Amino acid sequence: MIRWGVLGAGSVARRRVIPAMQADPGCTVQRLMVRDPERAASLARELGVPSHTDRVEVLLADAQVDAVYVSSPVNLHREQVLDVAAAGKHVLCEKPMALSGAECAEMTAACDRAGVHLELCFVLRGWPIYQQIRELIAGGRLGQLVELRAHLAKWTPRQAGEWRLDPAQSGGGAFIDVGSHYLDLFRFLAGDLARIGYLGSSAIFSWPVEESGFALIEFRSGAHGLLSVSCAVPQAGHLLEVFGTEGTLLLGRELRLLSAAGEETWPVVFPDYYAGLLQRFVAAVEQGNEPLTTGLDGQRNLEAIEAAYKSGREGRILSLPG
Q1: Are 124 and 96 in contact (CB under 8 A)?
Q2: Contact 151, 207 (CB under 8 A)
Q3: For a Cys-Cys bond, which of 110, 135, 164, 266 suits 255, CB 3.0-4.6 Å?
């Protein structure tokens, strides 16, 4: 049983993560930390969490906490993960992992030195449908990969003053927030990225960060990818298409595999966002199983995002670190 402390109980933690932890027989939520003491007490009552605090040091000193879910603004991730590791507690860090690849490497090294487990909240890896797609690709059903396309659009207007609209706190807009999930999914399915080009837009909401982001990607395998994310499209959804020399995968309300042999289809059930990730975290800590994500995954993700934003500023396609 993993006894969790929650560092920062924003909307994602409140709506998705804490309920997922409470529903998992391998997890219990022991204490949450929110800087506003009245809100900390209110949320603890609302969510049925037995203890709460408004100070990070109290959470980290709690001997009843085995692991900490870091769900604070992105600019705080580095310092807080270092503190959690120093306290000898395992770490589940929200995406994006930090503000730079260099910060990610420092965080991973600190967890390694402390002998604590570190994972990132790239939740798509834990969904059975993406595990199935990865198995179909790895099993050669598509032949050699040629192209991946992913699109996620939704309507997410934000209020002035939200930390996500401050690039110093968030690192950017839709591309680092939502696009980080799909950049990681691309790497999970097709391997390391080699080059990236990027365009961003804030034409609808006029945010100080991008509301829409678009990337052209080259994988080290020679395949290519197209990724688009937006917070400014009310009637939308998501899609994933994977094209190979021997087959094509189309993901919508069902998964379709098109090949010379005809068409195969599978039903798609999209699960609780965090259930698969939490199950793998518990198994990695308690049984030494393979982690679903690692600090290196977070680092490679940030390196791609940093290069993408630089590409947009400089108007050229950039190579990624090896």
Answers
A1: no
A2: no
A3: 266
